[in-house]
Amino acid sequence: MPRVSKRTRLLDDAEQYGRATKRRRLQSLVEALIDDLPDTDSSSSDSDSSNSSSISSNSSISSTSSLSSGHESSQSTGSSESQTFEELEDAARIAWNARFRAFVELIRTTRVLEPLPKVPKVSQLGLVLDGYRVDDPTRFRRNLRCPPSTFDALVALLEPNPIFHNNSNIPQLPVPYQLAMFLRRAGNYGNASSPEDVAQWAGLSVGAVEKSTNRVLVAIDDLHKKAMELPGDAQREASGDWVEARTTKLWRGGKFTTDGTTFPLFERPGLHGDTWFDKNKNYSINAQVIALFVH
Question: Tens of pLDDT along 29-54?
């Protein structure tokens, strides 16, 4: 059974409540109408008694007429009061309908029905960038995984990128702040690299952390050609001399590289099984590539 959203449940409850209220109002009107219908037995007895009565003198006629005129005035007063009460009842009903429609529209148009309380945060960016960066490079490196000199060089390379400049009335965070949040995420793994944890550390929102990460990645990708380039002939010869001096002449044109990419194994290997157990509690092997170039 698909899950029903809270907005849908509230709208359904409001609709049922509105129908029940209208049903009760209609029922009360019908009951009042039935109570106002004349009783046939009482009307016939009243007519018989009036026909049997007689009037003997002009004084009695005048007194009767005066009493009847007073009764008519009281009836007119009562009808005016009844009409005023009906007008008040109609006005209350119209006001209730207007408030009910406004309540339903509020449910439909409200983006967040139950906003969560604000999470108190204390930013560490100022302490790291302004304090540790100058007075304590060791703690700076522990937070951002690079020395202050490397951080300043990265900021100088990234600042000219147009992704950090826009025409919005709300300016972006400074590039050092955005780079610091990116390095904080890149230098950790697991929950420590999540946007929520970095947002707590930086004292900012999760959205600011995610946008800063994306901008820095785009800016770094634009620097790929400047940061990565193929070695020239002189560099290749020097590298070959270094390899030959430490291995053999056959490996002069070879390069041996290892990175941290792991390939998980579906079960524990039979040969040296515990050797393949890594820090993440998985059986895996690391990527190792050997390239031999024949001269």
Answer: 788 778 777 765 554 555 544 444 44
Q: Which residues of 148-187 are buried (b: 16+ CB within 10 A; e: fewer)?
A: beebeebbebbeebeebeeeeeeebbebbbbbbbbbbbee
Instruction: Using CA atoms of 49, 55, 60, 64 in order, give the dihedral in degrees to the nearest 10.
Output: 40
User: With contact defined as beta carbons under 8 Å apart, do 248 and 292 qualify?
Assistant: no
Q: How far is the CA of 166 from the CAs of 42, 169, 170, 171, in angstroms?
A: 88, 9, 9, 8
**Strand-pair partners of 256:** 290
Select from 10, 206, 4, 2 the least CA-distant residue to 113. Answer: 10
The beta-carbon contacts of 259-264 under 8 Å, at least 24 apart in sequence, are 259/286, 259/287, 260/286, 260/287, 261/286, 261/287, 262/286, 262/287, 263/287
pLDDT at 289 over 80: no
pLDDT digits (tens, 9 = 90+) for 68-116: 444 444 444 444 455 576 777 778 888 888 888 898 898 888 888 888 8
Q: What span, in angstroms and rounded, lies between the C-alpha atoms of 185 and 191?
A: 10
pLDDT of residue 84: 74
CA neighbor of 220 nearest in space, from 166, 177, 163? 163
Pair of tokens at residue 118: 């604000």
Report the C-alpha gap between 215 and 211 in whole angstroms: 6
Element (H, E) at 155: helix 148-158
Alpha-carbon span 288 to 257, nearest angstrom: 6
